[in-house]
Amino acid sequence: VQLQASGGGLVQAGGSLRLSCVASGRPFGTYGWFRQAPGKEREFVAANRWRGGYQNYADSLKGRFTIWRDNRNNTMYLQMNSLSPGDTAVYYCAAASDTLTAASMRRKNSYDYWGQGTLVTVSS
Predict the structure, then answer these.
(1) Rg of the chain, C-alpha, whole Å
(2) What is the CB-side half-sphere exposure of residue 58 using CA atoms within 13 A?
(3) d(Cα 96, Cα 112) in Å, to the nearest integer?
(4) How far apart are CA 18 and CA 41, in angstroms?
(5) Minimal CA–CA distance to 91: which of 44, 36, 43, 24?
(6) Of 73, 80, 36, 30, nearest to 55 (Cα)?
(7) Strand-pair partners of 65
(8) 92-104 pLDDT, tens per residue?
(9) Residue 20 predicted with pLDDT over 90
(10) Count of beta carbons in the 10 Å neighbourhood of residue 42
(11) Percent composition of the chain: helix, strand, coil (DSSP 3-state, to 5)
(12) pLDDT in tens, 50-87
């Protein structure tokens, strides 16, 4: 599986961005997004099972971020609204071969494949 993330950039506080991640290769059971701010550990953002219906969000991001995928082009998305400087980070897409539980989705070690990351910078 290869993952190619895009869509990052510079946005003002209160603005929105949509990240994309194109997946190629074998099918997988779970996909997700993580982020890593400077000097911090990589943290869970959102995840879902590829077959859908199991969206899972970091508690602090629920209501502002939305995750979904498009089967037609094997692309996963992360819509981010009402961005603040605290959202500044490198965002990574990830995929797991297995269909993960809700708890496992939140652990970065559960994922087998990672995209290269896309930088999101939110200015105040």
Answers:
(1) 13
(2) 18
(3) 5
(4) 22
(5) 36
(6) 30
(7) 62, 80
(8) 999 999 999 999 9
(9) yes
(10) 16
(11) 10, 50, 40
(12) 888 889 999 999 899 999 999 888 999 999 999 999 99
